[in-house]
Design a protein that fits this description.
mainly beta; Neuraminidase
Amino acid sequence: MGYSRQQFYEIGGTFSCTAPMDSSISCPGSEGPHPNRVTAPSSLVALALAVSVAGLFCVLPIDARAQQSGSTTDVVGPECADCEIVSVPLVSLGDAKGLGMLESDYNIVRVDRRGRYFLIGGLRPYFWVFDSSGKVTHRIGRHGEGPGEFSGIMDLAIDAADSVFVFDHSLYRVTVYTPDLEFARTFPLRLRLDGSALFVGASLLVNTGIHTEDRVGLPFHLLDRDGRIKRSFGSVAGGVYRADLQDIIDRRQLAQSTEASFWAARINQLVIERWTVDGRLLGTLHWEPPWFQVWWQPQADAETPPVTSVVALEQVADTLWVLVAVPGERWRSAIEPDGRLYRVTDLSEYQNAAVAAIDVGRGVAIASRRMPRLLQGLTEGGLAFHTEADTFGNPVVRVYRLEIHSPSTQGG
């Protein structure tokens, strides 16, 4: 997928956690002008905003109980100390002018079964489509609230038939396009999407927190084709609302595993669960490499390095690719004081990317590597991408194919 929201807190230098670790705050009841909105008591509003606790919406009660099962595998390795993970340049997306001119330094890429690249960025009210060679073919959407119009695109999911589902963060709705990119319909999104969305087989799955009594601590929500929640599951927090930790408890990076199962990684530690869409936990991968520092309450100050954070997952055959943002080796030189906080002046120096490949069948890490560039996400087929400036300063998205090179494949 792409960056976790935690990275935006770090980059913006606005994240601070002040609630005590041992505090437990009960989910408040529904009140306020919106019938589905949960409003926290006034004493908690500032704290909730400080940690960006979002998604405070109620929905109709359903059976949200998950079947907890499966075993935990302690990942060992990497087993190939001489192997190297390389990023092979594949295609560049974005032009210096015209229809394909991009506007954001942060972009998300999706790939459909026809080999087309779909790109969204910076909560813009439109998205781009490029063919397999990187040539722009469409820029779809405009600002507004009518059919085919958007306020801020948060995510985009593509189903098995190549229909495109576009999630509008501000209008709380999903717009559907046909495989031929014709407008089909819209439907309301009955939750606030703060995580990611993907299709698991024919099932549309989203990750976000819904902080109501019956759904708090359930990070996964299965939607029907009209946006109604069919099932919420994945409880690990015991139904307790934690204003100091809820974003960490709720947030996952997702990747499809099979037609009926998916991977879900926590952002603050390498704990990767495999779930079915009917709410069964099949198993958990647990890995503690020395370069991943587990965290719970990050601080935004000039003396604390950026957190190590899981950015994206993608499974290809039996290999699960894991993308992690790690502190840059020269992160101190990439920040400047800004009042009580700081601002990042060079993101590529502030954070780097680490990529790992795990054999999920054996529970063994094959290889891992700190990359020379900050990759922004992974997408279908084991592709990675990041945004950089071209010679004219315009954003361009570079797409790479991740490969593992061993001494034998290099003739060593």
